């Protein structure tokens, strides 16, 4: 580059640096991660800042766009507790609030953090062994019994069970205090969340800044997940165990993460209803019978895991799970009782317990905590009430205004007095803690960097080689300038954590060494619930397509400037079908056909509309999120946007026609993904079976409506339009639409991919490939029914088809749907449930 060019480039970088740092002022009395006490950028941040300054504002925005598109296209989302609509899991889902600035931590400092987190994981693991084992710490007076037994997370039935509270994954929420030291704000031992979001943050920012990621030698995360998976495998008695991730379901706050981790780690994502206790072992209900579950990584609270011995109101757990653990037939991670050591009441005792159990002082200290269940500590809290944060001692503790952390000094005088009275009366339910001012880190906002308070969640996993700490973590950043605690609620964003190394970092993959891979061509176990959801996903998508075809056919006739004879009758028939199918309001058949078409496109109040059908498809898909690709979720987003009228504006008939046409193209793209990208395993089969059944039923209904003995040529043309068979018909017959050729094409022609006969042939092939419960040579009900349908299609003649015979085809298809559900989705409700076999 010429000298003059280098000068201009250097000047522009300096100008961008000045612009980014303009007005960046650390908060008074707070440590800042980016700027030191002298106002200089900390050395380990300089490579990052230089990399940003090398990019023009437009280039920087393009990089941000790459990260944001990754988040949007992969559907990264979360929920806030209580923000739920059971009818539509998409309602209440919030896009992941990614911050584009990572938290940068140098290697030397990270080693101290990792050592402290490892020590703490060892301490809590040892403490759990004693709590659910000999109980020596309580007997010796080192730990008050009420700190353990007063916690709702202490599960008495787990006492004496090997691994009752064992830790497999631990997380610590850290904050840096004004003195520059890292402090532990909260221990996470129940079912720590955030590891999957940390991985997504990494993927997003690595995509946006790949050059900086390489040049700064950022530590990789894959080795941590590799170690965690190896730890779960080694905890089982079998060489190739079946590992299941137990989720509360799609309405859980972090369901996206659970589905993502199940797919990433190759685990089976299950809900409580997918599991069954049989002969002392836990099994997964699958389409091939019961399959043993060796390891369960739970993401539900421990007391909800077994309604038989723990919380009888739970609908999330598995009856008999505690007994299976008691007999050593299943490994549960984390142990069901592990949440007891999350209690804030315990934090004040941990320094002494560390010296007792480990012979060491804590590397990472707690924030100072006083449990008010002790007279002296309670009095200390009451004497200094205005200086402290008051919080529940145990999960679910406190009430009213103090059900979560409150800064007592900021409460009105009357509320503070009431809080004092509650502490005096029920001291064991409360702790007092020092008010912690969190450190700040930079956030890009308003075209420059600004300081915002943050916390850091760090993860440790038990592996065959000991505890392994994730070299990074889950950083949460508050939009409030004076945050005392940060959780994923409004006004909070998240970012990646970059741990820099002095040397190039090794590339790590989750794939095993090639010589250790056993080649297989079968995807694996398919739980009955997943098969059920895939089946109905196919049906809802096809149902939405049928409605869109009806809408397009209706609007096409309304805007046609050259109407054919019988057009008005056809329009009335099309509009009537929309009403009959629940896609348009009932009792309003006299409304203008265009208004009915509009309702059939957009209305969520009418259960059969295109928008409602596709909402149901998305709700169903959310239950099998781990089995769908990023492209599939992108298409769901496209469909949702297409069927969401802008500003409530009613489109013209021509615009509505185009909207229906574009939505049909998106559905065709989804179908293409399934046909070209999905492995032909049992999951694909159930998706295809659902589509074939729904398409066959819809075609029968179209034929009954538009192909009676008095059908006009325009009605027959409508039938050809609805079954996408116009081109095929015109290429075979030079004359206009005629009843018997049309019926043969849409009902009986096995070469027409839209005909009923073609759907039946595909159903026959897919059902024949599904597993059977018993090898006795007997045909199961779905196979018997589909063979009858296939025989009827092959032997029927078009001249004999009328409304009655077409209705019989439709009823047989609906009967086949019920038989499939009884056999594969409701295995314990019928006689075939008793034939289920347990396969180890």
Structure characteristics:
disordered N terminus; alpha+beta; 23 strands; Dna Ligase, domain 1; disordered C terminus; four-stranded parallel sheet; 840 residues
Describe the structure.
Among the domains are: 3-95, no CATH class; 368-434, Dna Ligase, domain 1, CATH 3.30.1490.270; 531-678, no CATH class; 679-827, no CATH class. The chain is built from 27 helices and 23 strands. α4 (107-131) crosses α12 (350-357), α15 runs antiparallel to α18 and α26 (781-795) runs antiparallel to α27. The model is unreliable at 3-8 and 828-840 (pLDDT under 50).
Biggest sheet, in brief? Answer: 7 strands, antiparallel
In helices, the fraction of residues equals 40-55%
The number of E-state strands comes to 23
Low-confidence stretches: 3-8, 828-840
Q: What is the CA-based Rg, rounded?
A: 31 Å
Structural class based on helices, strands and sheet pairing: alpha+beta
Strand content: 5-15%
Straight-line N-to-C gap:
69 Å
What is the mean pLDDT? 88
- What is the general shape? globular
Count of helical regions: 27
Summary of the model, kept short:
InterPro entries: ATP-dep_Glu-Cys_Ligase-2, CP_ATPgrasp_2, DUF403. By secondary structure, the protein is α+β, with helices and mostly antiparallel strands. Among the domains are: 3-95, no CATH class; 368-434, Dna Ligase, domain 1 (2-Layer Sandwich); 531-678, no CATH class; 679-827, no CATH class.
């Amino acid at each position: 580059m010429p000298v003059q060019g280098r000068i201009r480039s250097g000047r522009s970088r300096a100008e961008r640096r000045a612009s980014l740092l303009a007005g960046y002022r650390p908060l008074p009395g707070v440590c800042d991660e980016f700027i030191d006490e002298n106002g200089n950028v900390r050395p380990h941040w300089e490579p990052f800042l230089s990399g940003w300054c090398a990019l023009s504002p437009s280039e920087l925005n393009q990089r941000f766009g790459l990260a944001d598109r990754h988040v949007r296209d992969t559907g990264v989302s979360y929920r806030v507790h209580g923000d739920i609509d059971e009818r539509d899991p998409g309602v209440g889902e919030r896009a992941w609030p990614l911050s584009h600035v990572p938290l940068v931590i140098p290697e030397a400092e990270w080693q101290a953090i990792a050592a402290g987190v490892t020590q703490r994981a060892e301490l809590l693991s040892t403490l759990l062994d004693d709590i659910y084992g000999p109980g020596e710490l309580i007997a010796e007076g080192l730990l008050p019994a009420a700190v353990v037994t007063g916690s709702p997370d202490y599960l008495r039935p787990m006492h004496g069970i090997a691994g009752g509270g064992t830790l497999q994954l631990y997380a610590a929420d850290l904050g840096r205090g004004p003195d520059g030291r890292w402090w532990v704000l909260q221990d996470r031992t129940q079912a720590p969340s955030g590891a999957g979001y940390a991985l997504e943050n990494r993927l997003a920012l690595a995509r946006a800044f790949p050059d900086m990621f390489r040049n700064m030698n950022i530590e990789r995360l894959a080795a941590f997940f590799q170690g965690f998976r190896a730890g779960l495998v080694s905890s089982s008695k079998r060489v190739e165990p079946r590992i299941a991730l137990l989720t509360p379901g799609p309405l859980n706050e972090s369901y996206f993460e659970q589905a993502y981790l199940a797919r990433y780690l190759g685990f089976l994502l299950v809900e409580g209803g997918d599991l069954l206790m049989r002969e002392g072992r836990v099994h997964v209900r699958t389409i091939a019978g019961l399959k043993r579950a060796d390891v369960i990584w739970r993401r539900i609270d421990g007391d909800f895991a077994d309604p038989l011995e723990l919380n009888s109101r739970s609908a999330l757990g598995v009856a008999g799970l505690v007994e299976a653990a008691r007999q050593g037939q299943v490994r549960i991670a984390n142990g069901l009782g592990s949440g007891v050591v999350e209690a804030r009441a315990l934090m004040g005792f941990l320094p002494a317990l560390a010296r007792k159990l480990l012979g060491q002082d804590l590397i990472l200290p707690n924030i100072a905590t006083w449990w008010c269940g002790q007279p002296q500590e309670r009095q200390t809290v009451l004497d200094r009430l205005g200086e402290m944060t008051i919080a529940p001692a145990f999960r679910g503790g406190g009430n009213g205004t103090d059900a979560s952390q409150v800064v007592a000094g900021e409460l009105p005088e009357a509320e503070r007095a009431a809080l004092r009275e509650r502490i005096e009366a029920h001291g064991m339910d409360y702790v007092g803690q020092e008010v912690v001012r969190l450190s700040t880190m930079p956030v890009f906002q308003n075209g420059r960097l600004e300081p915002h308070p943050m916390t850091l969640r760090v993860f440790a996993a038990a592996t065959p080689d000991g505890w392994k700490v994730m070299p990074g973590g889950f950083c949460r950043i508050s939009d409030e300038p004076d945050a005392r605690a940060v959780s994923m609620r409004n006004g909070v964003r998240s970012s990646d954590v970059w741990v820099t190394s002095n040397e190039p970092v090794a590339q790590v993959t989750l794939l095993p060494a090639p010589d250790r891979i056993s080649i297989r061509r079968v995807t694996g176990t398919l739980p009955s619930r997943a098969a059920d959801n895939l089946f109905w996903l196919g049906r809802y998508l096809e149902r939405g397509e049928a409605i869109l075809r009806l809408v397009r056919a209706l609007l096409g006739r309304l805007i046609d400037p050259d109407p054919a004879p019988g057009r008005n009758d056809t329009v009335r028939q099309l509009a009537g079908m929309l009403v009959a199918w629940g896609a348009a309001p009932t009792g309003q058949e006299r409304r203008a056909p265009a208004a009915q078409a509009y309702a059939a496109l957009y209305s969520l109040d009418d259960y059969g509309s295109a928008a409602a059908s596709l909402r149901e498809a998305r709700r169903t898909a959310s239950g099998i999120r781990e089995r769908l690709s990023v492209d599939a979720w992108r298409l769901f987003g496209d469909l949702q946007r297409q069927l969401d009228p802008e500003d409530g504006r009613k489109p013209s008939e021509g615009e509505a026609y185009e909207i229906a046409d574009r939505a049909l193209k998106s559905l065709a793209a989804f179908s293409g993904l399934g046909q070209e990208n999905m492995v032909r395993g049992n999951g694909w089969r159930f998706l295809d079976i659902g589509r074939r059944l729904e398409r066959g039923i819809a075609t029968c209904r179209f034929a009954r409506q538009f192909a009676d003995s008095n059908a006009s040529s325009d009605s027959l043309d409508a039938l050809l339009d609805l079954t996408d068979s116009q081109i095929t018909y015109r290429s075979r017959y030079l004359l206009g639409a005629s009843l018997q050729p049309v019926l043969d094409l849409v009902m009986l022609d096995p070469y027409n991919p839209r005909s009923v006969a073609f759907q039946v042939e595909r159903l026959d092939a897919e059902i024949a490939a599904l597993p059977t419960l018993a090898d006795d040579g007997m045909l199961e009900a779905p196979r018997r029914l589909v063979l009858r349908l296939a025989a009827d299609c092959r032997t029927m003649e078009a001249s004999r088809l009328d409304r009655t015979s077409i209705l019989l085809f439709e009823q047989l298809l609906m009967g086949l749907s019920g038989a499939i559900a009884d056999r594969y989705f409701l295995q314990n409700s019928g006689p075939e449930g008793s034939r289920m076999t347990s396969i180890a």
